[in-house]
Amino acid sequence: MKSITAVVKQHAKSLIARRSLMLGISATAALALMPLSLPVVAQQSEAEPIAVGGLHSFELRVSDVERSLEFYQGLFGAPVLNRLTDTVSLQIGDGPQYFTLAPVRRGEQPHIRHFALSVPGFSLFGLQRDLAEHGMTRTVETLFDGRSPLELANLTWTERLPDDSQDMTTENHHLYFADRDGIRVQLSSPDACGSGEGPQATCNLEPAPEEGLIELREINHFTTYVSNYQLTNEFYRNLFGLENQAFQGTFPLLGLSDGRQFLMFVGGTQPGEPAQPGRIDHASLNIENFSEESVLERLTEYGLTARPEGEEARPLQHWVSRRMPERGGAPGGTPEVYFSDPDGIHIQLQHHTYCGGGGVFGEEC
Fold it and tell me: Which fold has domain 54-188?
């Protein structure tokens, strides 16, 4: 009978043969990085959570970057933080939070591509090791290789910046992983502003051409549809040491940072591996001077129209969802205001105390 060591080494070699993307990694190194069974699983379950500081940024893949830039700057008065070839990053509030506008790639539709979390004491190579200890398979760059979201599930990788020069070091690359549903998550240093992570990264602030109608405060949350919300919440609790901040019906809100920010994963309880990739449904931003009436007035003034009752949202519409007590809202319903941008991407706007809980402003968590 073969020894356990021989069996594990043989299994590792077969995985390497199937995954040509694991370039330059020996069988021994791959054994430490791949989510194998037997002793490796027991070791991964004891991995220390990665300490994160809070929500940091997100990326919108849009059909026309210049059109989206004009739309978001006119609405929010957000200054440009960086321009890298065909991408533009816009500051949220006083920073360092931001969001990036990037053109859709071949075969894509406009969507929220990823969200990012800040990591105090950011170390790209240290985080790659930490992710491997949590069962993530480390790979080479996968930016333009055409992989589907589920093919990226449980992988971690780095991506070059759009205008990376030959002398740009690996330390400056962006670091990503994809969860079990293929949702991309970026890990960033707290002061990153869209131009990388290393000492060569700089911010190039350009004031907005006009003040804007709505003043942003911070990123509040992301709501993501997944195949099994229980397994996904367990994954993020284990990976980052997160705890429930509140509940909306049966769905927990995983709290981050200042007690207002959170991650929300909703969906079914499908057993086994996901059959369909997950989807980031919307990003939520906390704003100044919030009331349901005033926000709708400003959105209407900006040219958006009310979504007809019972219809799917089309681009450049606004609507209100009232979260009732059975979903953790106020007795009369906690108003949640949404709009769709020129590509139909959904953005939520809330009072700066909103934490996803009860109360008129959703501030009771």
Answer: 2,3-Dihydroxybiphenyl 1,2-Dioxygenase; domain 1 (3.10.180)
